[in-house]
Amino acid sequence: MKLYNRLKTRHGTKTIVITTPAAADAMLAHLEQSEVAARVDDYASERAKPIKRLDCTCCGGGLQGRDWWNQEPGYGLCDDCAPRCCGPIAAGEESQTYGVAGIHYLITKAERDNPPLCEDRGEPLYGIDERLRIEYDGFVYWKGRQIEHYDGSALHDTDQNKSGARELIQRCETIEARGEEVNTTSVIWRWEG
Asked: Where are the alpha helices (DSSP H) in 48-158?
C-alpha cells in the first residue's frame, strides 16, 4: 500500500510517500499537531494587531475589531450581524470570511477598552513626531493608541494640516502629564485644554 500526500509549504509543494498504515497514522498525527500549533501562532500574531474602528460589511454600521486577511482593510463584522452571517459560532472559532470570533469580531468589552499597544504603526504624520503616526487607511495613533482618523484633504501635507498635527501632539502630551489615558475620547470628543 502506497499513499501519497502533497503538502503545501511556504517554499512550494512537498510530496511525501507513505508506505505503511503506521506511517499514515504518524503523518495524520503530525498534521493535526501542526495545524493546532499554526492556529495558536496565527492567533497570537492576530491578537497583536491593533483594535480599531471598522465598518460592518453586512449592515454598514461601525464596530471595533481587527482587520482580517479575507476582508478589505477597514471592514469587519459587527456584534449584531455576527449571528446572522456566521450562525452560532463560539469564541476562538474561525470563519474563513470574517476571521476569528473574539479576535476580529465579537471582541469583549474589556479587550476593546484595553487594546494591545503597538508602538510602530504606519509612518510619522507629516514627518513631525515619531510618537504621532498614521496608517495607510487614515487612522492616526499616539504611541500606538488610535486617537483620530483622517480622510480627504486632511491627508495632504499642508501647513494647516501640520498645525493640526502639532495641536494633537500638544493635547496628547497634556493628557499624559495629567496622568490620564490618551484615546479618541480624551483627545477629540471631550478635550478640555
From this structure: 82-86, 109-113
Residue 168 domain-assigned (yes or no) = yes
Q: Is residue 7 part of a domain?
A: yes
- Give the SS3 label for residue 21: helix
Nearest to 115 by CA among 191, 184, 173: 184
Sequential pLDDT tens for the chain (193 residues) = 444 444 444 334 455 667 788 877 877 776 666 555 545 556 777 887 778 778 899 998 888 888 888 888 788 999 999 888 888 777 677 777 888 888 888 888 887 776 665 555 678 888 898 889 888 788 898 887 889 988 877 778 899 999 999 999 999 999 999 999 888 899 999 998 7
**Residue 118 counted as domain residue:** no
Considering its fold, how many domains does the chain have in total?
Answer: 3
Residue numbers of the domain that contains 32: 3-47
Do 16 and 65 reside in the same domain of the chain? no
